[in-house]
Design goal:
Helix content: 25-40%
Number of strands: 10
Distance between the termini: 66 Å
Radius of gyration: 22 Å
Shape: globular
Number of helices: 5
Strand content: 35-45%
Largest sheet: 6 strands, antiparallel
Length: 205
């Protein structure tokens, strides 16, 4: 009787472990959508600081459906200066504790042409598939930041970080309200530290 009891106890432990493994695997697939930083570089050349980066972007089914229904999705690149620490702290205060610089890219779907469009400022590009559009959305090159500083003259003192996120504040109000507490509406790469390259090095992702 004791042997049988111990046997079923061990079997229960193994079943619990297997069940937890399945839950972890399902959780991993459930969170497959999001934004992941693949490369983030600050290229310092003469008196310029230019940022280049590559992010992998995957929409949740909810966001993909909203895009297909005509909602334009605004994505925000955010740069934050971290060194020199004293200067970065002063800039952060002057910016109201916001990012040092931002760049908006918008993703939309044109139902008449059945094409996806990535827009930034007055410039836009069209793509036949969502994967191509997301790939283009996740790449920036030659983003000129801190034009009013002399930090480029001493690149060894420079440091910063970069992230890409879906900017819910730019969505229409009904969508902003609907996104509250809904994880599938929140896409954020988290901050990625910038690698620093000198003028004689390659800084493109």
């Amino acid at each position: 009787m004791v042997f049988i009891t111990r046997y079923f106890a061990r079997l229960a432990r193994h079943c619990n472990a297997a069940f937890m493994a399945v839950l972890l695997l399902v959780g991993a697939y459930a969170h497959a959508d999001g934004i992941e930083a693949r490369k983030a570089v600050a290229h310092i050349s003469e008196n310029r600081i230019e940022l280049s980066a590559r992010f992998a972007v995957k929409l949740s089914p909810t966001l993909e459906q909203a895009l297909q229904n005509g909602l334009q999705l605004p994505f925000l690149y955010e740069f934050e200066l971290t060194r020199p620490r004293l200067y970065a702290w002063a800039r952060q205060i002057s910016n109201g504790f916001g990012p040092t610089a931002t760049l908006t890219q918008s993703l939309s779907y044109q139902s008449l042409t059945r094409k996806y469009r990535v827009s930034s400022g007055g410039f836009s590009r069209s793509f036949v598939s969502l994967s191509e559009a997301l790939s283009a959305l996740g790449i920036i090159s030659g983003w000129y930041v801190l034009p009013d500083s002399d930090l480029a003259e001493n690149g060894k003192r420079f440091g910063g970080r970069l992230r890409l996120r879906l900017d819910l504040s730019q969505l229409p109000k009904p969508y902003q309200m609907g996104a509250i507490g809904q994880s599938e509406w929140h896409l954020d790469s988290q901050w990625a530290e910038l690698a620093i390259t000198a003028s004689d090095e390659e800084g493109q992702p």
